[in-house]
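Let's do one together. I've listed all components of the complex below, 652 residues spread over two lines.
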Amino acid sequence: MKDHAELAEIFNKDEQRVDWHDETLWWIRAKRDIAVHKLPEWEELREAASQIKVNVLSNLSQYLKQFEKNAQANGIVVHWAKDAGEHNRIVHLLLKEQGIDKMVKSKSMLTEECHLNEYLKAQGINVIDSDLGERIVQLAEEMPSHIVLPCIHKKKEEIGELFHQHLGTPAGNADPQFLTETARQHLRDTFLTRRAALTGVNFAIAETGEFVVCTNEGNADMGAHLSDIHIASMGIEKLIPERKHLGIFLRLLTRSATGQPITTYSSHFKKPREGQQMHIILVDNGRSVQLGREDFRNSLKCIRCGACMNTCPVYRRSGGHSYHYAISGPIGSILAPNLDMEKYADLPFASTLCGSCSNVCPVKIDIHDQLYKWRQVLVQKGYSPKTKTASMKAMAWVLESPGRYRAAGKAARVTMKLAPFAVNNKLNPWYKHRDMPAVPKQSFNEWYQTNRKDKI
Amino acid sequence: MFSSRDEILAAVERNQPSFTELPDITAFKGDSNKSVDRFTEILSAIGGKVIPVKSIDEIRNHVAKNMQQGGRNITTVPLLGDIMEHVYRKDSNPHSLQDVDNAVIEAHFGVAENGAVWVTEEILMLRVLPFICQHLAVIVNANDIVPTMHEAYERIGNTNYDFGTFIAGPSKTADIEQSLVLGAHGPRSMTIFLMS
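Okay, and this is what the predicted structure of the assembly comes out as:
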């Protein structure tokens, strides 16, 4: 399997596309800044959100029990899933019980994490993603490359071609207005004919047993309110204690994500509609383990706004798919190794540690510190990338002994002088985008020996 | 044998850090001056349209002039029930609304900082109503515009609703190259009748 650097190299082959991707995401970051600067209390809001989330993590077991009790009293059926497999089996069973083989789904990063679509497909269940960006990547048989903007890596001409192939639009038409209208017509029929709808959850409230789903398109509501059975999937960390805390989080979420003051729809589902079944699946899938990792538990405060991705210089220039995990970018890079250290050992290294992610995070997660700390853990456990491990070991061997250090320095200077091609070649990752620095004639030690030693 | 529920709860309990108090958020308040102006400004910026009115008759005139061209126009507002199809039953089939062109509803209140209005199932009758119609119009009292989401939740308090939603403008998407398109899956337009 290819690691982040190798996948980023593929993305980087098309320089114009990289520039376009970089600028688009930076533009979204700039919109975020404009929205944020309009609120003088922004920093206080971040601090309050952070403290609320810290409280949630410190009392999560109680809040989960409280939520379960209140949701059940509201008529919602509560399920618990230890891992992705159990989550997927619960969804399948609920559909099977009703004899349903077609489902409409709104955006849920959790179901991406659990690979629900693939699982259901293997069971003969047809799933249609209703968020426009998700539908586009689904037609392209790709993963979303961004948690808020699933097809941000795609050019409109490519989307036009996909629609031409799958939805019968005229070849060569890449007008966003026209393509969106086509998707609207195509998905309206889906909403009207699906008996089952699955949605994600942005926030669940322990105090009232209700959950909140935010969309701009209205797709979650169209699916849920027309279905006989509504299934909502949520990670256990999505709980907040009280309804009034939504005031803090809904002010932060979209301003951080896209610079909007709020999503078009912030829907509060408290009870099933008359005659409808409503289910909620509380999913652990490694979250309780991450909760026990003192250095990394703060990653569970995340509200999935995507601000850390939009601002990240590595994400913007390497693309979401180079992270080979459902949640890309800086936050994904601290969540993924918790699930599989070996598979995702490369991700904490896909960062310059510039700290921009931590600065824009609306719940004050110390993202770049955690990236740094994951590197220590991964190296200690022997999961660091192989080339890096070999070169680090060689460097340690050289630095261990003054003699070896002097000899190595001398060898490097002679090589650069007599045989620069030995260093300036494709095997040296440093040389790829920059020239090696000019080498001095002598080392400091040699200079000191000739110029200073006798004069003391 | 332990259930997944018990296993998850036990793992969470074992791994959660020591208890930390919730912060006091009562100090968060917006400026109630010029709430109506801000509401109008923000809603216009996100693609909505605000029409100031002084009486229900003005709304009736607007409906007569703009909405009755052979389309299906519905309302949940009793005072408009004689000029539009009146939806007053909660137990109708939500699919029956699939061909609605215009819908007029009331909102409990609006929020100045983001142009959102708060509606609940009692107002909507059918939850799908404000999503499935092609064009949505909402009546809000100008005295019922609160400055921020903090006042909004203070106002909602512990009220009991089965379903409630904040709606801010027409449905939209920018998923194709960040080009904003109004009318994704929900209404293509949103009009607010701001009653003074």
